[in-house]
Amino acid sequence: MATDAKQRPVYVISVAAELVDMHPQTLRLYERKGLIRPGRSSGKTRLYSERDIDHLREIRRLTQELGVNLAGVEEVMRLQHQLDDLQEEFEAEIARIEDQIREKTRPMGLPAPDARLDPRDRPVYVISIAAELVDMHPQTLRLYERKGLIRPGRSSGKTRLYSERDIDHLREIRRFTQELGVNLAGVEEIMRLRYELEAAHSRMEGRIVSIQQDIQNRMTAWRELPAPDADASE
């Protein structure tokens, strides 16, 4: 599998540092901060994978090109690691479930995932109420929407409506900017990954529900098959 190859630890620290144009001490610092998670050989030597190299290049882009401070980079990489872990979990779970049914059944259409809306995603607050809840000016919320940091819904009359999840996101944005001093470029990266992580969770849950429902439907169909005719076997 392609993801397995990217995760295989192959580069010693000197080679990894050369590949990303950093000093080995910088890589050790990033590891202590939890920004990177190299593997270890049997002799405890650090070994970096292709994915680690991608992460180091992303850290360099955030710090050197976008001017994101270390607090912002830590949040970005924490979310990126969560995405990586979720992808591995998703692939392993899907492979396990599909292996269970592959030998017994031929492929057939899967039912659509459960599309019920999470109550936290229901758009209910107009912009004035949302701004009051998060102690921001409505114009700030409009700016954040233009930057893609927040994605409010719309009523049939095109009025912005914010959900509980949107309110949580706005409070997180305020924490990053006011408490941690993360610049807007860093916040954009963080929120992009948050949305990607939430979407990945939703896809994973929907896919697993679909496969589990498919298994249940097939088991029901097997149970309803007529019993073999005893007379015909004589």
TrEMBL record:
Residues 69-103 form a coiled coil. CDD domains: HTH_HspR. Residues 10-79, 124-193 form the HTH merR-type domain. The keyword Repeat does not apply. It comes from the Bacteria. PROSITE patterns: HTH_MERR_2. Transmembrane segments: none annotated. Keywords: Coiled coil, DNA-binding, Stress response. SUPFAM superfamilies: Putative DNA-binding domain. This is Heat shock protein transcriptional repressor HspR, fused homodimer type.
